[in-house]
Amino acid sequence: MLFFLFIPLLWRCGIPLGRFLSQKAPKIPWALAVSLLCVACVEWGVRSPLWQNAFWLAVRARAGQQDHFQRELSSLRLDALEFRSSDAPDPLIVIGSSQVLHGLDFHMLREMVKPRPVIRSAMFGMTPLKALSAWRYLRVTKKSKVLMWLSAFDFTNQQSFPIDWLRPLASWQGTPGVLSCYSFKERLQHRWKVVDLMVASSLELWRIRDYFHSLEFRFWGVSELNNVPAALSPQQQARMKNEMRYDLKLMPFELNAFQSLTDKMRTCGASLVVFEGGVNPELASKTRLQYEQDIRTWLNDQAVQHDFIFVPTTDQDLSLLNEDWTDMTHLNSSGRLKNTRYVAAYLLTMRSMGQKEN
Amino acid sequence: MLFNSMSFLVFFLAVWGIYLRLPHRKQNVLLLLASYFFYGCWDYRFLGLIAFSTILDYGAGLRIAASENIRVRRGYLWISVVLNLGILGYFKYSNFFIENAEVLLQLLGITPHHWRLDIILPVGISFYTFQTMSYTIDVYRRQMSPCRSLIDFATYVAFFPQLVAGPIERASRLLPQIQHTRTVTWAAVQSGFWLIMWGLFKKAVIADNLAGLVDQGFNAGHYQAGSVLMSVYAFAFQIYCDFSGYSDMARGLARWLGIELMVNFNNPYFAVNPSDFWRRWHISLSTWLRDYLYIPLGGNRKGPVRTYVNLSLTMLLGGIWHGAAWTFVIWGVYQGGLLMVHRAWSYGRKETSTERWTWLRRILMFHAVCMGWLLFRAQSLGQVGSMFAAFWRAPTWDLWAANSALAIFLVSWPLWVVQYLQERTKNLDVPAQLSLFPRTALYATVTIMLLVMGNAGGKAFIYFQF
Fold first, then answer.
1. Whole-complex ipTM
2. Residue B29 banded pLDDT, cuts 50, 70, 90
3. How far apart are the first and last CA of chain B?
4. How many whole angstroms separate alpha carbon A289 and alpha carbon A302?
5. Where are the domains of chain A?
6. B444 — contact with chain A (CB < 8 Å)?
7. How many Cβ atoms sit within 10 Å of the Cβ of residue A55?
8. Where does A62-174 have alpha helices with state H?
């Protein structure tokens, strides 16, 4: 695109303007056709690993304090580039939401399950539907073992059609699945988001647009003024999120997405282990417990039908206390340590059992 | 329904598809229905208001034309003007006057009861009110004959491409185009397409991107010179691209319907003095104010003092037209002051024509305009004071200012290139007349920037609130 910056320079250098003015009638179809070709060339250029690497590194470097998603997204996209040509053998792919990011010490886990590589593909707010959308970047292969964390509230989406989340990870591997999870009414209601998602699945220029803005406006670094304070206080946001998590209106779509996701994994030969994510015991209420029990039963049924391992909180030997939580849903360092040890031990037991079976 | 939304795209293509297959009279009916639907999408409750204005001025025009008695003619004109301005005043300025009356009473030691009228400002009311008034005044002046068809007149008032944010079309220009058979040529579709794309680029890439910077800069609380300067520059480009982008899209859409709307902006930041600026900025409003206010007040025909008074009155009303706030009033006074100073300065002087001086004058004029934008955008006079004070209290250049400077350049450089070309060739249609290579480069740049940088959220246009 920098090429176009030379145009004013050429004019300024004294090239007579009259030469550029055509004497004949404007031939816009030609100009349109050639300009579309230029757009296609730029699209091809931005898909190249060289550009992608530089771009996502620059995006990650410009993430502000609150831009967790931006940071995770650029890491995911960079990891996807790194693993593209030399897929690690037998990788352990960890997916899930911020519960995993807060709840697992990935460095420690890598050390404990050596030599098996651990790929961190979890993202803030990653529900089954979003994981399905990001399928292309999860790099699930035949020999992968996928570890997934799911809490009951992951099935209640934060918002319907979260396009800002879906857009940068959209692809034709994931989008048809995502669209099929929603009802016709929902798709109709969010028709422009459907169009947006389809354009994003086709064009990298469209996928990167939100993060191009971050480069555009924070080129020299993140200043205080760029960190726009959230309209709601953290307490208000937390309350709002918790309230929304009880909103079951969007749950059927997430359940559909989970089924599609397990189907996809089974089709490509990967094995799946689903851990149920816990919450701070303080959050326990009658409604919540009932609702968690319903989801647990459903996941148990799914595990039998779709042949994956489900580890409910009741079977997890974790004994987490109130002191192990940062807030209502995220573990702190002591909780993280307990959880990581437990997961590593679980995986090692599975491995030794597998070896014995062999 | 915004021009920069998918809903509008579907609406327009549907209307256009039907429009091309209809005979002339039915085309007008379709345009009227589409315009009322378009306006109803904002708020259907105000359809009655626009219909009332239409019938009022349609009737007034017929009555004025039918009478030879000057008192009767003047009577109908007054009815039209008073009712039109009354509606505008009620919806736009009631609360402003109440607030100020309250302050005045408090100064006199009276504690008034705190109350406000619960009024929603109808979108585009200032635009179509001025448009209908110009029709009645033109008929009164015998500068045009009245429109006999209510459908044609209603279509003129409510013509959807320019209904909510102008240009304020004169009846003498637009009505004949509505009354006569129109042909939609391929050349008009091509040039219209460019105007739509260019307008969309100005709106979605430049204005909407800079809107965030402007909000951050103006709401910062503690100001530094560098960030104030960048905020004001950003606002200068935001407001220009927002408004002229709308006008370009309106012209492009109208061309697809076989109608030519007036040019509303002619590279205003290339102006070399205040008079030149007002010949280039919001041309439809400035010419309206000139023809229906400045000249009737006496213009420059009654000596220098009256000229200055007329200038300041006209610009004051121009400021008030923009909104009910003291910052708009002061902006109007400031613009009037600039015009007066320029008139006094240029009295008896020859225009300098060397290129170097022209550029210097352009830069100076741009900064004078930016000063005005600071008044225009600020939420209070206190904020204006704090922002000005930053230039000697904190004359520093911070990271935000550096980021903003680059961002302003990155989003707006194609605008500079195109406007430089337009200015140099004195031809606003020059982008469509370039030969293949530069035209292709321009189209590709605009498309890529729309894809990557364009704000897809479909933000409302600033001038809708006026």
1. 0.74
2. very high
3. 17
4. 20
5. 86-220+236-357
6. yes
7. 19
8. 68-85, 98-103, 106-112, 128-133, 135-138, 163-166
Q: How far is A220 from chain B (nearest CA, A)?
A: 6
Q: How many CB atoms lie within 10 A of CB A8?
A: 16
**Alpha-carbon Rg for chain B in angstroms:** 23
Assigned token pair, A296: 């647990």
Respond yes or no: is residue B222 known to be catalytic.
no
CA separation for the pair B85, B98 (Å, rounded): 17
Measured between CB atoms, does B258 come within 8 Å of chain A? no
| Whether the Cβ atoms of residue B49 and residue B144 lie closer than 8 Å to each other | no
Please state which CATH number belongs to domain A86-220+236-357.
3.40.50.1110
For the segment B150-177, the average pLDDT, to the nearest whole number, is 89
When pLDDT is averaged across residues B394-413 and rounded to a whole number, the result is 88
Interface of B with A in 360-399 (CB under 8 A): 398-399
With 0-12 / 13-18 / 19 or more C-beta atoms within 10 angstroms meaning exposed / middle / buried, residue A126 is: buried
Which among B6, B220, B433 has the least Cβ separation from residue A192?
B6
Using CA atoms, how far residue A217 sits from A169, A222, B370, in Å, is 22, 9, 21
Q: Which two tokens stand for residue B86?
A: 């009354």
CB atoms within 10 A of CB A58: 16
Chain A, chain B: beta-carbon pairs less than 8 Å apart: 132
CB B153 within 8 A of CB B147: yes
Catalytic residue among B114, B180, B222, B322: B322
d(CA B35, CA A174): 41
Mean pLDDT by 10 residues, chain A (358 residues): 48 46 53 85 91 92 84 87 64 88 89 84 87 87 85 74 88 90 87 89 90 84 61 56 62 86 87 84 68 84 87 81 81 89 86 55
Burial of B131 by CB count in 10 Å (0-12 exposed, 13-18 middle, 19+ buried)?
buried
Return the residue in B8, B219, B411, B443 with the most chain A beta carbons within 10 A, the one to mutate for interface testing.
Answer: B443
Q: Which of A195, A208, A225 sits opposite B400 (nearest CB)?
A: A225
To the nearest 5 percent, what fractions of chain A are helix, strand and coil? 65, 5, 30
Model confidence over B360-396: pLDDT tens digits?
A: 889 999 999 999 998 888 888 888 888 888 888 877 8
Whether A153 and A241 have beta carbons less than 8 Å apart is answered as no
Contact residues, chain A, for B404 at CB < 8 Å: 217
Instruction: Give the Cα separation of A123 and A192 in Å (integer).
Output: 25
Cα A162 to Cα A34, A73, A156, A165, A250: the distances in Å are: 35, 15, 12, 6, 12
